[in-house]
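$ ./design --mode recover --in tokens.txt
reading tokens...
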């Protein structure tokens, strides 16, 4: 597999939102980006605030751009805040190093894209993203 299909992106979102509902989380937005950081698919549940899509996109964009989960980026930002502020400024605010996005990888390790969520805690957002990726038969680690 060399690219992420629209069907896979939609399955990731569908599975992530289903899991969110099962766990009783607040209304979510989930965004899937391809390996170049372009939106592949996005959904915002009824009741999710207007910021959710932008936040989910920023988490996913940072993850795919740097090749690690947004949680790792958040941890790195603590040690080097000026660099991460510069990344946010350079990317016109697209870069958000907060937990809630994971990479989408083929099982041979190729990065196919990323998925970010917003609506719950960072841990909740990240958990539904990883669940969605695995439900689509792909790897998030």
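writing sequence...
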């Amino acid at each position: 597999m060399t690219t992420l299909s629209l069907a896979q992106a939609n399955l990731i979102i569908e599975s992530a939102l289903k899991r969110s509902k099962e766990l009783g989380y607040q209304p979510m937005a989930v965004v899937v980006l391809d390996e170049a950081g372009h939106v592949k698919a996005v959904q915002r549940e009824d009741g999710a605030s207007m910021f959710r899509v932008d936040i989910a996109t920023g988490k996913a964009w940072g993850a795919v751009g740097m090749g690690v989960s947004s949680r790792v980026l958040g941890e790195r930002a603590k040690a080097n805040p000026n660099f991460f502020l510069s990344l946010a400024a350079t990317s016109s605010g697209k870069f958000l190093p907060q937990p809630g996005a994971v990479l989408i990888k083929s099982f041979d390790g190729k990065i196919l894209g990323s998925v970010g969520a917003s609506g719950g805690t960072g841990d909740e957002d990240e958990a539904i993203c990883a669940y969605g990726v695995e439900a689509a038969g792909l790897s998030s680690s």
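exit 0
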